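Format notes (please read before filing issues)

Several people have asked whether sequences and structure tokens are stored in separate files. They are not. Every record keeps both together, in the order shown below: the sequence lines, then the token lines. Line labels are part of the format and must not be stripped during preprocessing.
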Amino acid sequence: MKKILLSVFAGFAGIFACSSAAMAVCPVCTVAVGAGLEGARLLGVDDVITGIWAGGLTLSLFFWTVGWLKKRGVSSVWWLIVAPLVLYYGLLAAVYLMPGVTFGAQTLWGIDKFLLGVIVGTIAFYLGARWYVKIKRDNGGHARFPFQKVVVPLSFLMVATVVFWLITK
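Then the structure lines:
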């Protein structure tokens, strides 16, 4: 068991050592959040909380994909906005196709908890990302502190999580 853990740790250390600087809403952060979502569900975290982070993750993937496509010269609105939104939120909707998951089984304010969480998480992440852009613009095009591009949107998700945790408690 120790050999396996050491191998996994060495693999991650190697990946981090060879990687370049983190991009905004970086895919590594995105995958890390995604991996934690299923674990949170298994631990009994409420669906609205899981949905908040799933919505933030999905919008993060969307922003990352749009940036990647722009770097490759894609300028079509269809390929920049519509296709990634339909793809990512369509994949997120596929959660309801899983066995044992019923749409509307758990509701809050008459809305499915997971769907409500996705909506809230998407809005919170978007507002956090937009606020970061405003802060950067007001500071002469520079962040005020390292990793601010990650901290601001994630702090919005954390605040939304605490608010809905208190509501569902």
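For reference, the curators noted about this record: The chain has one domain: 2-168. The beta strands are 107-108, 111-112.
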